[in-house]
Write a structure and sequence with these properties.
8 helices, about 210 residues
């Protein structure tokens, strides 16, 4: 269950970060695409935006599901080998030097990323090719507030809500006699306030954009 939640948060953050690069145009029906913190942005029609976002989100969702079930498969496989080894110790597989090497599990878990990461990076860079924005960038830096807004938009609601929930639980357990260090209450309150601030900023950004 924890693995599924981590996978869900990771995919939500990737999708939010991708969509944060597009800002509704103030005068035209479409968006302005910005790849980095520089330049004025390049116009992107609603059709192009919908196509690019759908393609990226479909890829992220499918690969996120694949990685989750890949982890489950490895866990089941490892457990099965362990059970077999208990009854058939003479196989001596789990006791070999190769299997005892803790790195082998990490290699197997991360192996699909050798193929997934390059594919995802090509899709992440695709707007640069489709919109030709790599030729339109200037070296003038965007206003600090605009850069901050884009980065806050790149935070998923799932992550912010989870941060608020976990910090509230920490405060609750501390106030109800939990055996925690004294500084932990300040940490929990700090995390709560930080996530509330980012959630408030994110909400106001979307509300402002939806009125354009």
């Amino acid at each position: 269950m924890l693995g599924f939640e981590i996978s869900h948060i990771a995919t939500d953050n990737l999708k939010a970060k991708y969509k944060a690069r597009f800002t509704p145009h103030t005068t035209k029906e479409g968006y302005l695409f910005s790849h980095e913190d520089y330049g004025e942005g390049v116009f992107c029609s609603k059709e192009q935006y919908g196509s690019l976002v759908e393609e990226f989100e479909t890829f992220v969702n499918s690969r996120g599901h694949f990685m989750f079930w890949w982890f489950i498969l490895l866990i089941v496989l490892g457990s099965t080998i362990g059970i077999v080894d208990i009854f058939y110790y003479k196989l001596n597989f789990l006791h070999s030097k190769i299997w005892k090497d803790s790195w082998i599990g990490s290699y197997l878990m991360l192996f699909p990323l050798l193929f997934i990461v390059p594919q995802g990076w090509r899709l992440y860079k695709k707007p640069l090719i489709v919109l030709g924005s790599d030729r339109e960038f200037t070296r003038s830096k965007k206003p600090r507030e605009e850069i901050m807004n884009r980065r806050i938009k790149g935070m998923s609601w799932t992550m912010l809500i989870l941060g608020i929930g976990v910090s509230l639980l920490g405060i609750y357990f501390y106030l109800n006699g939990g055996d925690y260090p004294p500084y932990s209450i300040y940490l929990a309150v700090g995390v709560l306030l930080m996530n509330l601030y980012f959630a408030w900023r994110k909400y106001n950004i979307y509300r402002k954009e939806n009125t354009l």
